[in-house]
Specification:
Layout (H helix, E strand, L loop, with lengths): L8 H9 L5 H19 L2 E4 L1 H16 L13 E5 L26 H9 L2 E6 L33 H8 L5 E6 L5 H6 L3 E4 L19 E6 L2 H11 L28 E5 L7 H16 L3 E5 L3 H19 L17 H12 L2 H13 L7 H21 L4 E5 L15 H5 L6 H6 L3 E8 L4 E7 L5 H25 L14
């Protein structure tokens, strides 16, 4: 194993500062790892080796001659971007036949900021088509597999982004999260991911699934790496009216003592694997030892999931209406516009996308005079109020990220409803716009499980403060548990040791 590809972004930034390595050397190491791992993992849809080497050389020049500028810690660090973010001149497929040939002449705001920071783009990663899924199987590129066990899913829809980091192909990655699409893959791959407050990171240039729920998220090996990445990604964008100013460097919160903070523990464990229950309860005990006040709390998780499924499908139906076989995407065949639209959507959309379009269109149907959807939105407001009242009493709420470890590839191929339920612990954060952070909590002896901290809006600082302290406290126990249970690899921080 090349040690460079197994190190964290923070460690590599220090090595670059000390001139121990160059960005070109680091990028070549990642590209070599991609060559070795891709036949097994399939994390990337579009590698961008030429762009990466060019950006790496430019980063090395910037480090030699900073010209009085303060360099970003990410200058020269290779990363991957989910293939629902536009990068000028690079195919943007959304893992869909509908956009197989589309090449944008613009870049997403987050990719512009990464380029400005000097980060090196290794390629575009695999996802469920149009980010609709939780397994990274429904893609024109085929399924991505979990680096810790290729028979298992890396989660979805940001499965390629998580797998790229866990396999050492990328140092960190950019994913999206509409209902848990970055946090669940991070949990399945033993990684950290931050779902920021809605509006903290610009969505400009990101392929829309559900506009009121979509967020841009870093996925990395450690809490510190996520803080580094979020610091570069976050902030107001004059072209995205939903955005607001960032507080700056999130690393400032990592060393703060969490003593005196209060955390609610959501003990709604129905259907959870024993390893998940053990991980959440152990994390609660660790927090108490750190001087954090912990008490049980009940979140409206089931209601949030049911509302999320309708809202997400309705907004997806509206957003995907632009793919009409005439102006956008795959061109349909036929004599009249209706025939062309029917042909393009039949050939261009996969089964899951069609399922959600039909569900969303039904929910918005004029047959109901909009009454049904109005009731759904009223119920969403009720869930938001209840959640906000709970979070007003706590600095964060501790809960599982998913009900178990990664499942086998293909397990839910014929049961989409069961797969939807895998998001029941994550959707509340998207529905309310609140931030949440996922970190490794332990495992079942062979695969990792995740735990999450969710806070009130714009409370990323408190979440980083708690998550960093919890990460330090859990590391030895989780690695000891891994060794005692005979696991073949170390699943803390996605670092493969087997």
């Amino acid at each position: 194993m090349n040690n460079l590809t197994d190190r964290t972004a923070a460690e590599l930034a220090e090595a670059l500062d000390r001139r121990e390595i160059s960005s070109v050397e680091l990028t070549v190491a990642c590209l070599s790892r991609m060559t070795a791992e891709e036949p097994r993992i399939n994390a990337f849809i579009t590698p961008t080796a030429e762009i990466a080497l060019r950006q790496a050389a430019k980063a090395d020049e910037r480090r030699k001659d900073p010209d009085g500028r303060t360099l970003s810690p990410l200058c020269g660090i290779p990363y991957a971007a989910k293939d629902n973010f536009a990068v000028r001149g690079v195919p943007l497929t959304g893992a869909s036949e509908m956009l197989r040939e589309f090449v944008p002449d613009y870049s997403a705001a987050v990719c512009e900021r990464m380029e400005a920071a000097g980060a090196v783009l290794l390629g575009k990663t695999n996802l469920d088509e149009f980010a609709m899924g939780s397994s990274c199987e429904r893609s024109i590129a085929g399924p991505t597999r979990n680096p810790l066990d290729p028979e298992r899913s890396p989660g979805g829809s940001s499965g390629g982004s998580a797998a790229a980091v866990a396999s050492g192909e990328a140092v960190f990655s950019v994913g999206s999260d509409t209902g848990g699409s970055a946090r669940q893959p991070a949990a399945f791959c033993g990684l950290v991911s931050v779902k920021p407050t809605y509006g903290l990171v610009s969505r400009r240039g990101m392929m829309e699934l559900a506009s009121s729920l979509d967020t841009v998220c870093p996925i990395a090996k450690t809490v510190e790496d996520c803080a580094l990445a979020l610091g570069e990604m976050a902030g107001a964008d004059p072209f995205d009216a939903t955005t607001f100013a960032s507080c700056g460097d999130y690393r400032a919160f990592l060393g703060e003592d969490p003593r005196g903070l209060t955390v609610g523990i959501a003990e709604e464990f129905d259907g959870c694997d024993e390893s998940v229950i053990r991980a959440v309860k152990r994390a609660a005990r660790k927090l108490e030892l750190l001087g954090v006040s912990v008490e049980p709390v009940k979140l409206p998780l089931e209601m949030a999931l049911e509302i999320y499924l309708i809202v997400a499908s309705a907004e997806a139906s509206s957003n995907l209406a632009r793919y009409d076989g005439l102006k956008y995407g795959l061109h349909g065949e036929g004599k009249i516009a209706a025939d062309k639209m029917r042909d393009a959507r039949t050939r261009g959309f996969g089964d899951e996308v069609k399922r959600r379009i039909v569900t969303g269109t039904y929910a918005l149907s004029s047959s109901y005079g909009g009454g049904y959807y109005r009731k759904v939105k009223a119920a969403q407001q009720s869930v938001c109020r209840e959640t906000e009242e709970i979070l007003a009493r706590f600095d964060a709420v501790l809960l599982p990220t998913a009900s178990g470890p990664a499942f086998k590839v293909g397990r839910y191929a014929d049961d989409p409803n069961a797969l939807y339920r895998s998001d029941r612990f994550t959707t509340a954060a998207n529905l309310t716009g609140c931030p949440a952070i996922q970190l490794p909590g332990g495992g079942d002896g062979t695969m990792p499980v995740g735990i999450s901290l969710m806070g009130r809006k714009r409370s990323e600082g408190a979440l980083f403060r708690l998550a960093a302290a919890l990460e330090r406290e859990l590391e030895d126990d989780v690695r000891k548990e891994c060794a005692n249970r005979g696991a073949k690899s170390d699943y803390f921080g996605g670092r493969l040791r087997g």
